[in-house]
Automatic annotation (TrEMBL):
PANTHER family named among the record's database cross-references: NUCLEAR TRANSCRIPTION FACTOR, X-BOX BINDING 1 NFX1 (PTHR12360), TRANSCRIPTIONAL REPRESSOR NF-X1 (PTHR12360:SF12)
Source organism (scientific name): Brugia timori
Keyword Nucleus: yes
InterPro entries documented for this protein: NFX1_fam, R3H_dom, R3H_dom_sf, R3H_NF-X1, Znf_NFX1
Protein name as it appears in the record: R3H domain-containing protein
GO annotations of cellular component type: nucleus
Domain spans labelled R3H: 478-547
Taxonomic classification: Eukaryota, Metazoa, Ecdysozoa, Nematoda, Chromadorea
């Protein structure tokens, strides 16, 4: 049965000085928790040690500093380190006293053997022998330190003239240096190499950059400094792996919403947002509409979405159903504001700001007329000159010959000069005078048109209107042109066979640029549109025949014996003809005695003819 009283224990502790102050307890008393202050023998340093029986016996200690006292002789200073003076004011008997100094400095020979008389004072010189000093120096290996090689001498030994091997702190570098440098290094001041450590520290983020590093665990001593989850305070731990811990700070004051209607009681962890409030927002808003959102902690309120009426940029009209927060509204109409030139009006869609941005002047063409304007001038019977501007006008205008076959461009001012010259010479009545006279080819074309009008033939100049490129290629690429011609005729036939469609397309296979040009230029004489697609070498042409636009030419290129002969037929393997087309045989018949025209019984329906034309008798 255990029984405890309420009295203090009072037993002597292990130090033998203090008593146990704990209430009556079972077992041994605890260790004395008091501390004892000790001073060094020279009185320069103090230290605090636990109160134990051993520490109570020792009242002073040696700090290791050189003693500053004097020997009893009063002449020489003490050569010892901080030591106990045993209650005296001096440091005892002088080390050079005849009573203590019995041998020479090297310690091999008695002074009595070197002197004829005895030394009586510490100030008497100490004799030396002829032996080598041999005292151990601070340099050299630990197992074989260097020794003084001078003869027996008084005082400290001079520097060692030898060299010794030294290792850096991390043992990565070994070097032989003079002994006078070797003694400068110690455990407190080690020899360091220039090698920098590159190992990762414990944070796994930074690398150790210490010189001659000997650490086994490279502890990162940087402060983390990252913001905690509260977004206010920073992590004060040493740089670490993983996420920072939660902010442990808290507020012990009430937390109110912005309107003050809702309160959150403390303690409130750091970073906690304001409490949600169901009351309408009480902030000052830019409009007079009642707020449609609750009290919030965001710095800006949501935009007001009440539908209102607002004018557009140019005040052209009042737009309805515009949210209140929208201040920029465009009606989509032309701006039509007068520009700075006071002549033109802005053609931009209803916009904000100035009509002319970046200080750009009006770029619209001037609408003011020149001093002299000629609308039309007639030369010969049907020649018409469209003169746009005169009086040194540099604009190029188109002039034509009498039959309108040839045309050319000429500056408007030159046309005006020529016109004035004709007026001055009074030759306007002369039908043979012209700026661009007709030639023999014009007369031939006019004659063909008259004959075609009699025979009811459309497009009589089909062959003559062909370019020189097609005429030349007809001699070298007859087979290719024939395939293109059949395909275009088949395309027109497909368009006629489908009355419900407005256009029909055909895609030619990939081919080189020369054959694509043949298709483009020859399709113009059928009224068929062509477009090239793709990249070389897979670029191809797509031809589209449109109703009421495309037509069958009266004379086909391959039907003219003036530009093609049987001996000039050559084959080109640029592309294969359409497999869906069947060979078509052409028959030639004479029309009159002066003009030949191609007719084909197999193509009569494709051209939209009711029956093949017959030779006139």
């Amino acid at each position: 049965l255990e029984f405890k009283c309420s009295m203090v224990c009072g037993k002597t502790l292990n130090c033998g000085l203090h008593k146990c102050e704990v209430t009556c307890h079972q077992g041994d008393c605890s260790v004395c928790e008091y501390v004892v202050t000790q001073k060094c023998f020279c009185g320069l340093e103090e230290r605090v040690v636990p109160c134990t029986a051993l520490n109570l016996k020792v009242t002073s200690f040696s700090c290791g500093a050189p003693c500053t006292g004097m020997y009893a002789c009063g002449v020489h200073k003490c050569e010892l380190k901080c030591h106990d003076k045993h209650g005296k004011d001096d440091c005892g008997l002088c080390s050079l006293s005849p009573k203590k100094k019995e041998y020479c400095p090297c310690g091999r020979t008695l002074i009595a053997e070197l002197l004829n008389m005895e030394r009586t004072s510490c100030t008497d010189p100490v004799p030396t022998c002829k032996s080598v000093c041999g005292k151990v120096l601070a340099c050299g290996p630990e197992d074989q330190p260097h020794r003084c090689i001078q003869l027996c001498h008084v005082g400290s030994c001079s520097g060692c003239p030898s060299s010794c091997l030294i290792s850096c702190r991390c043992k990565a570098l070994k070097k032989i240096i003079p002994c006078k440098e070797f003694i400068l290094y110690s455990a407190e001041n080690p020899y360091l190499c220039l090698r920098r450590c590159k190992k990762l520290k414990t944070c796994q983020n930074h690398r150790c950059r210490a010189v001659c590093c000997v650490d086994e665990e490279h502890v990162c001593m940087q402060i983390c400094g990252k913001k905690l989850n509260c977004g206010i305070h920073k992590c004060d731990r040493l740089c670490h792996v993983g996420q920072c811990s939660r902010c442990l700070q808290a507020s012990f004051e009430e937390q109110h919403c912005l309107c003050g209607q809702t309160v959150r009681e403390p303690p409130i962890p750091c970073g906690t947002p304001l409490p949600p409030c169901n009351q309408p927002c009480s902030r000052q808003h830019s409009c007079n509409h009642p707020p449609m959102h609750n009290c919030h902690a965001e710095p800006e309120c949501p935009p007001c979405t009440v539908l209102t009426q607002k004018p557009c940029y140019g005040a052209h009209e009042i737009r309805a159903n515009i949210p209140c927060f929208l201040n920029d509204v465009s009606c989509g109409r032309p701006c039509d504001k007068k520009l700075l030139c006071n002549v033109h009006r802005c053609k931009r869609i209803c916009h904000v700001g100035q009509c002319l941005v970046n200080d750009i002047s009006c770029q619209q063409p001037c609408i003011k007329k020149r001093n002299l304007v000629i609308t039309s001038v007639a030369f010969h019977v049907t020649a018409i000159l469209l003169v746009l501007k005169a009086n040194s006008c540099a604009t190029e205008v188109i002039i034509t010959c009498s039959c309108l076959r040839k045309s050319s461009k000429m500056p408007c001012s030159d046309v005006e000069k020529a016109y004035q010259k004709l007026l001055s010479l009074k030759v306007m009545e002369d039908n043979h005078s012209n700026l661009l006279p007709c030639d023999v080819e014009c007369q031939r074309a006019l004659r063909n048109r008259k004959l075609a009008r009699i025979l009811n033939i459309s497009h009589p100049d089909a062959v003559d209107a062909l370019s020189a490129f097609l005429k030349n290629k007809l001699k070298t690429n007859y087979k290719d042109i024939l395939d293109v011609e059949d395909t275009l005729i088949e395309l027109l036939h497909d368009l006629d066979a489908q009355p419900n469609v407005t256009s029909v397309s055909h895609s030619f296979p990939p081919m080189h640029s020369e054959l694509r040009r043949i298709i483009h230029e020859y399709s113009e004489h059928f009224g068929i549109e062509t477009v090239s697609y793709g990249q070389e070498p897979q670029r191809n042409v797509v031809a589209t025949a449109k109703r009421d636009v495309s037509y069958m030419p009266a004379v086909l290129l391959t039907a003219s014996k003036r530009y093609a002969t049987e001996s000039s037929i050559s084959s080109s393997a640029a592309f294969a003809p359409s497999k869906t087309l069947s060979p078509i045989s052409k028959n030639f018949s004479c029309v009159g005695s002066k003009m030949q025209q191609l007719h084909s019984e197999g193509k009569a329906l494709k051209r939209g003819l009711k029956e093949p034309l017959m030779s006139q008798k």
